[in-house]
Structure formats: structure tokens, C-alpha cells
Write a structure and sequence with these properties.
It is a single chain. The protein is of the alpha+beta class and 242 residues long. 19% of the residues lie in helices and 28% in strands. The protein has helices at 2-5, 27-32, 132-141, 155-161, 185-193, 228-238; strands at residues 17-25, 37-44, 47-59, 80-87, 92-98, 101-102, 106-108, 121-123, 149-150, 167-170, 196-199, 220-224. Strands 1, 2, 3, 4, 5, 6 and 7 form a seven-stranded antiparallel sheet that branches. The chain has a five-stranded mixed sheet with strand order 9-8-10-12-11, with helices on both faces. Helix 3 crosses helix 6 (228-238) and helix 4 (155-161) packs parallel to helix 5. The radius of gyration is 17 Å and the shape is globular.
Length: 242
């Protein structure tokens, strides 16, 4: 098994066909019994074609809004566990996990946000991964008064893709930090196929053609397409980019 795992040594890049796998995304969330995910993405010539994310501790009901306690201690009781997937150009879906296997899938989409001040935004639990002070400043500038929902892993992408939340912010903690492709590839596609946009702090699409990291991007901002520019504008003001 270890020899087989060692074959997963692709450098990535703009040419070729690779699978990006994160077997336990959100390790600390997994250890504390909170949110974590199993993430897989097919990348061809730097373009994400397929994304699949299993979230064992997310509520099955897609309409269940994100709440502050969603990242806390979870149980193996019924009503938890969802498999999210997307194929480029074919939309995004969710499928509840059951004791007997997979339930039927259904299409998911981001919810409309007529009043951005009422938007629900989420961020990572770990302060080392995202600048939580800057995230809060962006939310304040947008008029959002409710506190952020903090949860580990790409469960954040899945949550906004199905309309349980609206905005995902992951602002840079330092200038030299580079995001890993396996932390974002599947979630990026699922959100975009659900009607959202995923960019960096400059409004550039995430570029998965540069190798194992998002070397040409800084930070991550994900939101419904209709409000993405407004969120990016707030991010750039807070970060003194304009």
C-alpha cells in the first residue's frame, strides 16, 4: 500500500491528467469530531473537470443554514453525511450518505442574496490558514452583523454551494503563503457549477496549472456570481489594494 501511495508524486502543471486527493481535509476538525472532508478532483491540463467531496458530518438537509455550532462536536447519528459532486458543464449535486449506501442525488445551487448584509459567511477554524481579523473587517464593510461560521475543510465550499451559506473568505495570512491545489480543486468546481464564483483577492480565477500550489493566486473569495464583485471590492478596500 505504501508503495502505491508513493506513486502519487505528480508535480502537476499545465499538461497532463492527474487526480488531486486529500484523504482527510481538515485534520484537526476530524480529530475534534467536527467538520472534515474527503476530497478528490480530476485535473486535465490544469483545468478541473470533476470534483467530489464527502462530508460525513454535514447535515443531510441542504436547506439547513450554517450555524455557529456546526463546526463543533458531531456524532454518528442519523441525518448526517453528504456526498457532493460536480462535472464541468453539468452542474453540481448532493447525495445523502446512509447506512445502506448512497441515497438519490439532487441538483444544488447557491441561493440568491437580495440583501448582502443578511449574507452568511464562513471561514476556517485555524487562524494560521486565514486572516480572521481581515475577514471580519470585510464582513463589517458589507454590513454583515452576524458572526462568521467557522468550520474546517472544503465543507465550506459545499455549504455555500448548496445554499446553506453565502460567502467563503480565506484571506492571506502572509505574503509568501501558497495554497495547495488539493485543498481547493474539488470545492472550486462544485461552487462554480452551483452558480457561484471562486477567485483570489484580485478577482482572478484560481489557476490549477502551476503545479502543486496556487502559485499565481493570493487568498480565496467564493460567493454567488451576482455579489462576487461587491465582495471583492470590500476585500480590496480592507487589504488596501485600492
Amino acid at each position: 500500500m505504501l508503495d502505491i501511495i508513493d506513486h502519487g508524486n505528480s508535480a502537476g502543471g499545465a499538461k497532463g491528467r492527474i487526480w488531486a486527493l486529500d484523504p482527510i481535509d481538515g485534520t484537526k476538525g476530524f480529530l475534534r469530531g467536527g467538520q472534515y472532508a474527503v476530497c478528490l478532483a480530476l485535473i486535465e491540463d490544469g483545468d478541473v473537470k470533476v470534483g467530489v467531496i464527502g462530508c460525513p458530518n454535514l447535515p443531510v438537509d441542504d436547506s439547513t443554514s450554517l450555524t455557529a455550532d456546526i463546526g463543533s462536536q458531531q456524532t454518528d447519528g442519523t441525518g448526517k453525511g453528504v456526498l457532493f459532486s460536480a462535472v464541468k458543464g453539468e452542474g453540481a449535486t448532493s447525495r445523502p450518505l446512509t447506512n445502506a449506501g448512497l441515497a438519490p442525488s439532487k441538483s444544488i445551487s447557491m441561493r440568491p442574496v437580495p440583501d448582502i448584509s443578511q449574507a452568511v459567511f464562513c471561514e476556517g477554524v485555524e487562524a494560521a490558514h486565514s486572516n480572521q481579523d481581515d475577514n471580519a473587517a470585510v464582513a463589517k464593510r458589507l454590513g454583515i452583523t452576524s458572526p462568521s461560521v467557522r468550520l474546517d475543510s472544503q465543507a465550506k465550499y459545499c455549504s455555500i454551494a448548496r445554499g446553506a451559506g453565502d460567502i467563503y473568505l480565506r484571506l492571506p495570512v502572509r505574503k509568501d503563503y501558497q495554497e495547495k491545489i488539493w485543498d481547493h480543486a474539488a470545492g472550486d468546481l462544485i461552487v462554480r457549477e452551483a452558480g457561484g464564483q471562486v477567485t483570489d483577492i484580485y478577482g482572478k480565477r484560481l489557476d490549477f496549472s502551476k503545479g502543486r500550489t496556487l502559485a499565481d493566486n493570493k487568498g480565496v473569495v467564493a460567493a454567488p456570481a451576482a455579489i462576487q464583485d461587491q465582495v471583492i471590492d470590500a476585500v480590496q478596500v480592507v487589504l488596501n489594494l485600492k
